[in-house]
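For the sake of transparency, this paper describes our internal protein records without simplification. An entry from our holdings is shown next, in its original layout:
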Amino acid sequence: MASFGIKDIFDIVIVALMLYYLYRIMKESGTINIFYGVMAFIAVWVIASEILEMRLIGTILDKFMNIGLLILVILFQEQIKRFLVVLGSQRRWKFLTSLFHHKHYKPHEEERSKHIMPIVYACRNMSKTKTGALIVIQEHIPLDDYENTGDLIDAEINSRLIENIFFKNSPLHDGAMIIDDGRIKAAGCILPVSHDTDVPRDLGLRHRSALGISQATDALAIVVSEETGHISLAHKGRLETNISSTQLEQRLNELVVNT
């Protein structure tokens, strides 16, 4: 019988850390149910084939494991894509990317904080007039592909400019505005739409788009409802509805400034 040594302990610790890190990433990307399902299947496979030595079930599960990865890719294309996007985000490889891409550094906390208030003021004013709006704030995952679907602006953040872009007669009011690094990068952008069935039916396309971009990336999305004037905030696949401008300011300071 083989001895159990330091190398085996080290091997177990590495696997445990990898699983924990994988769990955190999949939880953050909204694909945690896939993780639970895969781990449950592996547990059944190990118990049946290795511990209980059930040959028939073990053989069937062995065959299924050979094609299991392909089946997962087919069934969970969007979830796996979302997981890979989160895995490859600059936040997780910050040390390496900082060696080659200095331009990706975020502004200091003071600089980022001063960009919050124009957004909050604009949302407050648009809420009063029931002007529909969808504002996306980029975090670590680049939104270049979504910016290219709209009109590039590259202007400083200004509450009046934001309100004018979302004015009902403006040609860009139907799309999304993307903000990054203290500047309005683009407007009239097309975002992925969430198809979650638990989204309330009274919420429209703007809310589903906000939820969709928050599921596909780590961006924050602010929605001002054209019907009710209510402000909503989407982040990490969660949608906070009917929040006040004060609550919006607090949440943006928590999520954007202090990260």
Summary: The chain is about 55% helix and 15% strand. The CA atoms of residues 147 and 186 lie 6 Å apart. The mean pLDDT is 80. The first helix runs from residue 6 to 28.
